[in-house]
Request: fold
Amino acid sequence: MTFSLHANPEATTSNDYHHVPVTEKQLSFARQIADRSGVVLPLEVQQSRYSLSRWIDANKVAKPTGQFSDYASSKQVGLAERIARRKRCEVPHECFRDRGMMSKWIDANI
Reply:
């Protein structure tokens, strides 16, 4: 068996990353992107993990930047408030302005 190096990684004959089937989580994420953006998710892209990963990178919405981009997400806040009620404590105020800090607080209190 001979192997050759090609500029296109999908053209190789080895059993590398790009020949591994897509995961359900990856496919679900790609479908969410397609639904939100109104873009068609091509069937041929859904055949390999490498192709689908490239499609996701090309079509996902960029992370927002701006004054409030580092604030905790609404889902984080909701989860933290439920945890705080259950534990009868308060979420530290600084956690609301830093998503990383909020994540650490949630992990420490679950």
Notes: Residues 24-37 form the longest helix (14 residues). Residues 74-109 form one domain.
